[in-house]
């Protein structure tokens, strides 16, 4: 065996190169222990007096003193030719001439036998990293071919060189465990901050899906929400914090809480985003977020929406046509200096709206517009319940458990009701011209409508009383045009009065001697809930709800 020919193949070794006196690399201390520092070899041969030439050294002695594990096998059945002391200490002595597959079970544990066959056939060295043996130790193993000496009739073999990397492997495993726990913490926080159960409005059917990115992707700040605003109106929210890990999830939680608080003010979508924009900058100026906020009004069949840098809402009509809500779109939250605006998109009965984050449609290999177009094609053929549509969109866009980004999808359906189901949903309205006769006309109208809807007598009386008080309040404090609206669903009765004055009423305690100021208190006492909001064209709407007996 010619040691000089294959010694350079061992990890960490290299052939000796000729050097001159100008080389900046210092001489090894052990190699030139007898010479003065900085002195050159007297004969210019590159070898100092007293130092043996490499060809004079015994390969067996060198290999025997290596701290790494070394074994030499020969022949196609890998018969043992040599193992060094480190190998014997690690796995025990091995008989020379025995087949490695039988006498060296550790090679099977490390899955090295197929690799050794490949090295013997190809004549190319191969290295495998951090293979774990039954003893618990980990090894990085290099298998190097040893060519046969034809003159002596020796067979070719394989030199197995194994370095113990247990400490390194354990450190890497501790790091992976730490990262895995960090990710699990972020996912747990993220999921805990999302709605545990979606609110289901009377007029809509809603489902949502959140899927964190794969193990190699840090958890982001995607979120969604559904908020019932009263009087049958519903707010829909989708957002994405441009960050990763626990911090992004925490910022997401703060923004979601703020959105719910601002939604209770029943403001137009662009005003909600305007408030959220300022708050996002205060929470963390280094992180920005995108958000789309939409409000559904069943009386109008519209989605009123505003977007802060978010992807467009998609609406699928009953015939399969998909429409895209393009405008208006402002910059992401936290950038400041932008006045957001609202727009509308029709959501008629039988249609489906989809709100989503960029993880669903963004791919590194293609433009994001191509992803949105692919989502439109998938949505055009998606039928079934909202959850079925959610699952189908996830599959159609090839989102798997190893996806490189987290994904949030919110599917909203406005079902087309027919037959008995349609009989549970009715609307009626009356324009009020003002004057003292408006209140009795409103009460008479409410009595006739509620009776025709076959409500129990007690509920009819409460509804007529609430309608009279809301109309009286509007006559006292509002301005024309005035309108009384009655709406029933399968769960509640809604009474709403609109007028042209934008001063919102508030509940107050009236003194015993006061002749007015009790109307809103009466409504708040007898109704399940009540509220007020400003209308887009100027003016206000005051409403109350009564839960229907089940």
Shape: elongated
Number of helices: 14
Helix content: 25-40%
Rg value: 39 Å
Compute the average pLDDT. 84
- Could you describe the largest sheet, including whether it forms a barrel? 6 strands, mixed
Structural class: alpha+beta
In what range is the share of β-strand residues?
A: 25-35%
Number of strands: 21
Low-confidence regions: 1-38
**Cα-to-Cα separation, first versus last residue:** 93 Å
Spell out the blueprint of helices and strands.
Elements (H helix, E strand, L loop, with lengths): L2 H4 L52 H7 L3 E6 L4 E5 L1 H7 L8 H4 L1 H5 L3 H10 L3 E7 L5 E9 L10 E8 L1 H28 L11 E7 L9 E10 L2 E9 L3 H20 L4 H15 L5 E9 L4 E7 L4 E4 L5 E4 L3 E2 L12 E4 L4 E6 L11 H13 L5 H11 L10 E8 L11 E7 L5 H15 L4 H21 L4 E7 L3 E8 L19 H8 L2 E6 L5 E8 L3
Parallel strand pairs: 10-13
Antiparallel strand pairs: 1-2, 1-5, 3-4, 4-5, 6-16, 7-8, 8-9, 9-10, 10-14, 11-12, 11-15, 15-16, 17-18, 18-19, 19-21, 20-21
In short:
With 550 residues, the protein is of the alpha+beta class.
Structure write-up:
With 550 residues, the chain is an alpha+beta fold. Helix content is 31%, strand content 26%. It is built from 14 helices and 21 strands. It has helices at residues 3-6, 59-65, 85-91, 100-103, 105-109, 113-122, 166-193, 245-264, 269-283, 368-380, 386-396, 438-452, 457-477, 519-526; strands spanning 69-74, 79-83, 126-132, 138-146, 157-164, 205-211, 221-230, 233-241, 289-297, 302-308, 313-316, 322-325, 329-330, 343-346, 351-356, 407-414, 426-432, 482-488, 492-499, 529-534, 540-547. The strands form four sheets. Strands 7, 8, 9, 10, 13 and 14 form a six-stranded mixed β-sheet that branches. Helix 7 (166-193) packs parallel to helix 8 (245-264) and helix 8 (245-264) runs antiparallel to helix 9. The longest helix is centred in the N-terminal third of the chain and has 28 residues, at 166-193. The protein is elongated, with a radius of gyration of 39 Å. Residues 1-38 have low confidence and may be disordered.
